Each structure stands twice: as C-alpha cells, then as structure tokens.
UniProtKB/TrEMBL annotation:
<dbReference type="GO" id="GO:0016020">
    <property type="term" value="C:membrane"/>
</dbReference>
<keyword id="KW-0812">Transmembrane</keyword>
<feature type="domain" description="Ion transport">
    <location>
        <begin position="6"/>
        <end position="224"/>
    </location>
</feature>
<feature type="signal peptide">
    <location>
        <begin position="1"/>
        <end position="16"/>
    </location>
</feature>
<protein>
    <submittedName>
        <fullName>TPC2 protein</fullName>
    </submittedName>
</protein>
<feature type="transmembrane region" description="Helical">
    <location>
        <begin position="194"/>
        <end position="219"/>
    </location>
</feature>
<feature type="transmembrane region" description="Helical">
    <location>
        <begin position="65"/>
        <end position="84"/>
    </location>
</feature>
<keyword id="KW-1133">Transmembrane helix</keyword>
<keyword id="KW-0732">Signal</keyword>
<feature type="transmembrane region" description="Helical">
    <location>
        <begin position="26"/>
        <end position="44"/>
    </location>
</feature>
<feature type="transmembrane region" description="Helical">
    <location>
        <begin position="126"/>
        <end position="144"/>
    </location>
</feature>
<feature type="transmembrane region" description="Helical">
    <location>
        <begin position="165"/>
        <end position="182"/>
    </location>
</feature>
<keyword id="KW-0472">Membrane</keyword>
<dbReference type="Pfam" id="PF00520">
    <property type="entry name" value="Ion_trans"/>
</dbReference>
<dbReference type="GO" id="GO:0005216">
    <property type="term" value="F:monoatomic ion channel activity"/>
</dbReference>
<dbReference type="InterPro" id="IPR005821">
    <property type="entry name" value="Ion_trans_dom"/>
</dbReference>
Length: 231
C-alpha cells in the first residue's frame, strides 16, 4: 500500500508537466482520467485507514480532513474546467496548488511531515534576520533613488535609470543574487566611476554578510528543531 500510494502521489504531481500550459502536452481527457484515477486511489486509501481507526480519532486528525478537502477541491476544479472547456471558455486549473497536500498528509509520509514541521518551527526565528535584510534593501534602494534618480541617467535601452522606487527595490533585490551584475550599475558607472563603490558596498553587506547570516540562522535553527523532534 505504501508503494502504491507513493506511486499515485508521484503520478498526480507529474500531471503538471502534461496539462496546459504543458512541457509535453497530452489531451485533456487523458490527464483528467489519470487525475480521477489518482483521486479514487487516495479516497480508497483514506477509506481503508478509516476502517482500522476509531471514528472519533479519524475525524479529529487534521491530516485526514486536509486530504478529504483536497480531493473535493480537485474534483470540483476538474469538473468546472471541463465544463468551461466544452464552451471554449479559457480558464486555469487552480487546484494544482493543493496536490502537494497528498504528499504531506498521508500516514506514509511521516518523515516528510517532520521535515515540514521543522521548517515551520524555524520560520518565526529567521523572521528577524529577514526583516533586517529587507530594511537594508529598502535603505539602499532609497539611497540609490537619491543618488541616481536626479541625474537623468538612462539604461542601454534608453529607459529612465533608477527613477521608480519599486523598480529600484526589485533591481537591487536581483543584484543580491548577482544575476544582473554588472549591467545594473553600468549607467551610473559611465556617469562616474566612483558610483561603483555604492554597488560594491551593497553586494558586500547584502550578498556576503546578510545571506551568510541568513543561511547560518536557517541551518542552526532547523538542525535544533530536527534534533528535538527525533529526540
């Protein structure tokens, strides 16, 4: 039963590759039949579990409620999507986001639930570091707006450079990953090479210091909660 459950969970999650918009598109009838089959297996597994569990215990278990709700939502979404498709009305399969619930909440997925529980317990403790990082990002964005926004600079595409505050925040957020480096600083660097110091300082503070601190806090707290959970 465990192997069969895992197989159909994997099959259900894999449908996203074949449903519109798909990497390898298959007819809607095929994907819908496979999904219905998976949902029937999940319902059968849940029914089997209910047979060997006391009724009051079964209905008090949040995991079982989550699975039932996920099955109902998936069937409702599938029916609505199918009807709209008949009338050539374009829509999306919003129930895809509930599919990981089957992976987490079945009794066979105890280890996965423990990992998710550790992540959930870790989140409040890393919030402070994340807020400090966001504060640093917003302050650097404000400085960039004052430094470059009034210089009437333009990007290579001829667009205004660092004029909109939200766009500045996004560009500097991407710079934390260095994905847009050095392109993001070239208009300022062409105006004055001294402006490169601003971007160097930003990368040192946010990429090297904050990201290392963030990773250390996440790792240490996750390890602590995992150790407590496994005794």
């Amino acid at each position: 039963l465990r192997t069969a459950t895992y197989f159909f969970i994997f099959l259900n999650l894999s449908l996203a590759v074949f449903e519109e918009p798909a990497v390898y598109p298959l007819p809607f009838l095929v994907t819908s039949l496979v999904e219905v089959l998976c949902l029937l297996v999940f319902f059968g597994r849940l029914t089997h579990f209910a047979k060997v569990t006391l009724r009051n215990v079964f209905w008090k278990d949040t995991k079982n409620i989550c699975i039932i709700v996920a099955i109902l939502l998936s069937l409702t979404d599938l029916a609505i999507y199918g009807i709209l498709r008949i009338y050539n009305v374009k829509s999306i399969r919003w129930s895809r986001i509930v599919r990981p619930i089957f992976l987490i909440n079945f009794a066979e997925s105890r280890q996965i639930r423990r990992a998710f529980r550790s992540i959930r317990n870790t989140l409040p403790e890393i919030t402070y570091v994340f807020l400090l990082f966001m504060f640093s990002l917003l302050m650097f964005s404000l400085m960039a707006s004052k430094l470059f926004g009034e210089r009437n600079l333009q990007t290579a595409e001829g667009l205004p450079y660092f004029k909109n505050y939200l766009e500045i925040v996004f560009d500097l957020y991407v710079l934390v990953t260095t994905a847009n480096s050095p392109d993001v600083m070239m208009p300022a660097f062409d105006f004055s090479s001294w402006y490169a110091l601003f971007f160097i300082a930003f990368v040192i503070v946010n990429t090297y210091i904050f990201m290392s601190l963030f990773l250390a806090v996440v790792y240490n707290n996750y390890k602590k909660h995992l150790k407590v959970m496994f005794g």
